[in-house]
Amino acid sequence: MPSLLVKNAALLVAMDDADTRWTNGGIFARDNVIERVGPSETLPEQADVVLDTRGLIILPGLVNTHHHFYQTLTRNLPAAQDADLFHWLRTLYPIWAGLTPEAITVSTKIALAELMLSGCTTTSDHTYIWPNGARLDDQIAAARAMGVRFHAARGSMSVGESRGGLPPDRVVEDEEAILRDSQRLIEQYHDPARYAMLRIVLAPCSPFSVSPDLMRQSVALARAYGVHVHTHLAETRDEAAYCLETFGRSPVELAEDLGWMGPDVWHAHMVHPSAPEIARLGATHTGIAHCPTSNMRLASGIAPLRALRDAGARVGLGVDGSASNDSSHLLAEARQALLLQRVTGDPAALTAHQALWLATRGGAATLGRDDIAQLAPGMAADFVGFRLDTLGLAGAAPHDPLAALVFCQPQQVDLSVINGRIRVRDGRLLDLDLPPLIARHNAIARALVRGEPR
Q: What SS3 state is found at 120?
């Protein structure tokens, strides 16, 4: 089995429970698993691949718990720049109806490239619109080619405007077809093993775009196969009003009624839970994908992050759809989380270390993983390195290099190793020619918005 030696890191941060850190640190991994970690002088001197990481801070790869890759095609759209969630969706649904398999593939690669260069090594995605023959298989093929650890969510919408839902009828699917495809994807792709590179998630979109029956049947199907489930919940006050009017329940109460609570469930946003609901979310160890930039961009509100964590909920970070964030930079999301929590009036509401914990250990827990997001023997060989001699960290790295990653200008990685394979080296993605990919992505984006064939 091939071996990998990382040595001479300026600082190596394990992100373990003891907050272990080493100067002149290193990692020895064999195949895709870390065998030893610690001071460089205590590690083997030889390996099949040796990386001298002098001048870098090394930490576990970041984990993204919520995204919509296809939305990179509609970033910064003028008609949706100043809208709240419901108006934003109504503007974009008709455009997304023009997505094709190529659009899904190319936008997935663009989103993954951004994520990987920002320090992300594991990500989930929640695509819930599948027009014109597009399938989750298109995303899976792209993620495999990129070499990223991927939790692929089979999203869905089944309740259109004619039945009281938000999306146009032409972009929703038949519920039996959704369930059949969900079962196919689990049986064809899901890998429950430790160090799995691909897992399937079932992810009906939201209370205003799917039926209670589909929510119940999806979670039952997922539990029969041992896979996790994901949806949007309690994101906006409009959603709360819709749920009260339609179901006579708050969004969280509805999720409880439908069986959508527990250690195999995570919800995106959770901006507006009540205090008793926070307690129940924590008691059931339900997961939360905190998406501060999107919540700010759409004026949705500030999630009660500390209360959710204190109650026992599993909380990670998500960059959310790039059309409601306009970026897929996970390290920037950690910085945004820190700043937004402090707006509430407490200058220590979230520390830099806690923000990075959310981006690593918190994200792993949210996705149900205990094999990633810390540097220790027996953990997956997923780690990233940031240079400390950059302009954006000047005057900060000498004092507290770990906190500098959060407080200062968000950096791009110099090194990324995923599953024991080098995917970014010297700040460049390996095995990917970005300029033609960007050019094709922009061409698809222009044609999609104009309603032209691609």
A: strand
Tell me: the pLDDT tens digits for 238-262? 999 999 999 999 999 999 999 999 9
CA angle 51, 359, 274 (to 5 degrees): 175
Evaluate whether 184 touches 172 at the Cβ level (below 8 Å).
Answer: no
* CATH number of the 62-366 domain: 3.20.20.140
CA-nearest of 178, 177, 176, 240 to 205 is 178
Is residue 319 a contact partner of residue 67, using CB atoms and an 8 Å limit? yes
Q: What is the biggest distance separating any 2 CA atoms in the chain, rounded to whole angstroms?
A: 68
Residue 139 CA: distances (Å) to CA of 113, 135, 199, 200, 451? 13, 8, 12, 12, 23
Whether 3-61+372-429 shares its CATH topology with 62-366 is answered: no
pLDDT score recorded for residue 452: 83
Given 3.40.50.2300, 2.30.40.10, 3.40.718.10, 3.40.50.12780, which CATH number is that of 3-61+372-429? 2.30.40.10
The total number of residues shown for the chain amounts to 454
Instruction: Indicate the domain borders of the chain.
Output: 3-61+372-429, 62-366
CB 407 within 8 A of CB 417: no
* CA–CA distance, 290 with 270 (Å, rounded to integer): 7
Give the residue carrying structure tokens 């997304």: 96
Structure confidence by residue, pLDDT tens digits, 103-122: 999 999 999 999 999 999 99
Residue linked to tokens 């792209």? 142
- The backbone torsions φ and ψ at residue 156, rounded to the nearest 5 degrees and listed phi first, read -160, 155
What is residue 62's three-state secondary structure? Answer: strand
37 touches 28 (CB < 8 A): yes
Let me know: does 420 contact 3? Beta carbons within 8 Å: no
pLDDT tens for residues 389-419?
999 999 999 999 999 999 999 999 999 999 9
For 389, other C-beta atoms within 10 Å of its C-beta total: 10
Across 142-184, the runs of DSSP E, i.e. the strands, are 149-156
Instruction: Give me the residues of the chain with pLDDT under 70, please.
Output: 1, 454
